Please model this.
Amino acid sequence: MTVPAPRVRRRPRTRGRLLPLLLTVALLLPVALLTVQAHRLIDDDREVAERERLGVTYLRTLGPLTVALVDAQTAAVARRPITRLALDQAVEQVAAVDAEIGAELRTGERWAGLRAKLEALPERSLSDPEAAFNAYREATDLLLALHTKVRESSGLVQDPDADSYFLQDGVGEEMPEALVAAGRLTDLVALIQRRPDSERLRSLSELAAHRVAALGPANDLVGNLRAVMDSSESADLGGHVLTPFDAYQRGIEAMALTSQPDRTGSIDLVRLTGARLEAHEAAKQLQPVLLDEVDRLLVERIDELNRDDLLVLGAGGVAVLLLIALAATGWSARRKDEPVALDPADGAPTGVDPTVPTTTRWEQLPAQRSPVSVGNSPDPDRWRPFDAAR
Model:
């Protein structure tokens, strides 16, 4: 006889089903934490590099301003007509850059003080060259302080890469200091020639101090550039820097020789001025090349950080998807393997013990007669009318 299968209901094991979820959550939390932490660190490094690029942009405008201010100082001390066109143009360029990024670099206050000092400089040569020398000294001191502020606020002074650090140190600190000190040295020699003999001792000691101040940063710049060109993997650095660098070296070496007083205590101002102009022109060519190289290194660093960020986020996303897929697979597999439990209240046949295994439950059913099995067990009363007719 065919008996319909009884309805059954699966009773899930809550503890068994929650275990894959708990394991997934326990693994997801550290994976997500590490991914987010790595992303934040990369993002911080990228912001530092982008901020350094702002410093490079600011230094580009300070270079022409330094050259124009030193030239104006030399003209004022020599009592020559002062051409303020180059100086005014450089001031406007710095003002435009400061208006754009000065708030982020916190240079507004220093630039305002320097600009006020520059605008207060006389448009004509003063009758007293000593007064002109002191006036321009104050302005150049403020300009060097602005260089330092830009490097510190932008983070260039703490750059972690060796090549970019030495390059920014040379172009942002040593080069402007060398330009200003070289201009002061030649202007001081011109002033000494006009001073009386009674101030000879003071003049010689002052000249020695300015000579050290001029040659010190210049030699440091030469040393830094040599180290970078020897260790840098960039072939473009040597090709672009070699010519102006050699000219700058020759100018510094000539300054070191011609700034030394002879036996009479005098200095050849013409030769010293020529050496200073050679170094001056070479520095004007060298400054934008070095800044371009620093900016290129920063751009490469930012691109590398972007690639690392994509790898971190991609790896974290793949790990999360794998853990979720693993949990889903474990969940479905556990549901298939759960044992079936019969519930009499849901339609199990009477007399069936739900605790008995399924394969032996049909043995407990009461015996029933199949309506189609009459041939095997005939009923005598059923065939009696046929016998009487026969």
